[in-house]
Amino acid sequence: MSAPGLGALSVAQLATLVSTGRVSAVDAVRESFARAANAGAGRDGLNAILWSDEGAALGEAEAADARRSDGSDITPRRLAGVPVVVKDSIATLDLPTTCASRMLDGYVSPFEATVVSRLREAGAVVVGKTNMDEFGMGSSTEHSAYGPARNPLDRTRVPGGSSGGSAACVAAGVTRIALGSETGGSVRQPAAFCGVVGVKPTYGRVSRHGLVAFASSLDQVGVFGRTVDDAALALEVIAGPDPLDATSTDTPVPSYRGGSAHVSDGLPLRDVRIGLPNEYFPESLDPRIKAHVDAAVEHLRIAGARVAPVSLPHTSVAIPTYYVLAPAEASSNLARYDGVRFGKRVSSDRLRAMYERTRSDGFGPEVTRRVLIGTYVLSAGYYEQYYRRAQEVRALVARDFATVFESVDLLLTPTTPTTPFPLGSVTDPYEMYLHDAFTVTANLAGVPAMSVPVGRVDGLPVGAQFIAPHFEEALMFRAAYALERALGAEMSQ
Ligand code: GLN
């Protein structure tokens, strides 16, 4: 097979061809760099990729090809030769890990995240580290110390955030899979804005070892895929317990790709009950977005699902709850960037001034705002009023899901209240926070959720979100396969 066109193969197809020696990993990786150059994925274009090293990536691919051809490694690998990009908050050994912050400018981790090691063991090659909102705080990738990333479908618009660079790379065809991270929607929202698949697994499903902490009780690594199958395969590779992350669980990892078998059946969702939560379809929802989600519901019904309205009564308080808890945890996690232990230092002859200068120079305005809010809600006198209360409300949000999952198997909602907005158009922080209205709930409850592309409005993508009970990713994927099949594969292309 000639090298051009490898990007059109599914991840599973490419890995099979590379594993059996019919395509070289070098060609697959070289082609990915060529697509990145064509799409202008770098700093002067989409600004989706912050760091990459073509020579090193090709060297890695060449070594893998050599081991395959001399017979020293004949193991079929699930991601053999598959190019992948990784969010800049996930530690890699060979490329910087900066979280798009001046605080970590030039920082190279001395160890690798478990998720990255698992990708490499499966044969994948990291071709770049992607742009993001600084430390994951934002919904547009405009809060990056290296400038905003752009949406490849309309370069005047944001790709969403905070994992906007990863979503943009998959949408632009640079790679078919990418890693991102989620604290309140940072994989699903950019996936919806860029017209790709984005998955946030159950809290504990995937190791956080090597993911730079934002809000540890909410953070999870997530995956992007060009198609549902690409994403399912990537999640299968990274999921599972890790002794280096005590919050990862040993619940067995089933096949997420089993769903593809069901779709040949006439009614692949015959036994599935899907709830439509009223609170996710407010009056203010863009009717064109609603129309696409309604059409998706119709497809699910035709595939055999039973659909019913349900209620998650605490949805409206999820945003304020999240924006107390996430900054509280962030203020504690980011205390380590003090000019002594990690990254940047702005010197002074007085210790206190060194701390102050380092932190005010190293952090951008949104991170500073979060640290201040977090410190405030944890301070004596306000702790009970804000932090404690938010913890209590978080339990109510989680209970809503537990209750609703007694009567339905899955939920379907729009992923975002709007389509991608123009760069620079959302300047009020609170308005930016409202973009997470449909996504933060799953993080607060720890349940898995994913966004699937369901259509376009004025050429801009719309995503629908499935939410499942804890560790029911396989069922969520099964429904997503059926929906993707019904909508036509072109939706994810
Ligand atoms: N937009 C949310 C925030 O700014 C979520 C970010 C994320 O999931 N990392 O906190």
Describe the model.
The protein is 38% helix and 13% strand. The model has no long low-confidence stretch (mean pLDDT 95). It has a domain at 3-259: Amidase signature (AS) enzymes. By secondary structure, the chain is of the alpha/beta class. The longest helix has 22 residues, at 383-404. The protein has helices at residues 11-19, 25-39, 54-69, 114-121, 164-171, 188-194, 228-238, 259-262, 287-302, 318-333, 351-362, 365-378, 383-404, 429-434, 440-445, 473-487; strands spanning 49-51, 83-87, 125-130, 177-182, 197-200, 220-225, 273-277, 306-310, 410-414, 449-457, 460-467. Bound molecules: glutamine (GLN).
Indicate the topology.
Elements: H1 11-19, H2 25-39, E1 49-51, H3 54-69, E2 83-87, H4 114-121, E3 125-130, H5 164-171, E4 177-182, H6 188-194, E5 197-200, E6 220-225, H7 228-238, H8 259-262, E7 273-277, H9 287-302, E8 306-310, H10 318-333, H11 351-362, H12 365-378, H13 383-404, E9 410-414, H14 429-434, H15 440-445, E10 449-457, E11 460-467, H16 473-487
Parallel strand pairs: 2-3, 2-4, 7-8, 7-9
Antiparallel strand pairs: 1-3, 4-6, 5-6, 5-10, 9-11, 10-11
The structure holds glutamine.
Instruction: Kindly report the spatial arrangement of strands forming the biggest sheet.
Output: 1-3-2-4-6-5-10-11-9-7-8
Residue ranges: pLDDT <50 for 5 or more in a row? Answer: none
CATH topology of the domain at 3-259: Amidase signature (AS) enzymes
Strand content: 5-15%
Helix/strand-derived class? alpha/beta
Helix content: 25-40%
Radius of gyration: 21 Å
Mean pLDDT: 95
CATH architecture grouping of the domain at 3-259: Alpha-Beta Complex
Number of helical stretches of at least 4 residues: 16
The hetero compounds bound to this protein are: glutamine
Q: Characterize the main sheet.
A: 11 strands, mixed
